[in-house]
Fold this sequence. Notes:
By secondary structure, this protein is α/β, with parallel strands linked by helices. It has two domains: about 1-80, no CATH class; about 85-195, no CATH class. It contains four helices and ten strands. Strands 1-3-5-9-7 form a five-stranded parallel β-sheet, with no helix packed on it. The chain has a five-stranded parallel β-sheet with strand order 2-4-6-10-8, with no helix packed on it.
Amino acid sequence: MTGEVSPLGHGDQTGAGGDLRASHEDRDQVVEVLRVAAGDGRLTAEELDERLEAALTARTHAELAVLTRDLPAGPGLAPAAPKDLVRIDLRSGHTKREGRWLVPRQMQVRVTSGHARLDFTQAVISGRSLHIDADVRSGSLTLLTKPGVVVDTDDVAVRSGHVKIRAPWGPDVPVILQVTVSGKVGSGHIVARPPRRTLWQWLLRRPRPYQLPAP
Length: 215
């Protein structure tokens, strides 16, 4: 965790109150504060990523408290305003959204040939849902996810090709973004998965990105 945040268990919230077990609602409230703070520029993408992961795995109120004690939580903290609609029309080649990009409310993605990638691992999420209307004729649409980003592709019609969703952290992680994908796949594919380890990370036997600690 970055400089100003104390190690877990050494924050201001100690004693009986801080030792209380956190609920899904408690975690969701902290996630919302962190998400809004990032949209306002108070947290870097790396800080947001670290704190979100800690919030999603926190077991007590004390562990949650240290994640937001240097952030305002009142009405003055206004979230960034996402666009209502973003269109991507890819005829060939590749396009991607990565880093600290602001997730809109809705996207239309047309892939005639090539590769489109939407990376949510460091994205600024200011809403709780995103609808993607996809038309993948040939090529691919890849969604890079992390714990809390849930992808639903039940409304995608597949003629030839495939749709594959990987969420190795299981269904018990609190949802921070619900991504609903509809549309059709011609001879390409739609894949949602966490980032892969680099060759160097694999050789060093480092854990997979966003792998949650064992309970």
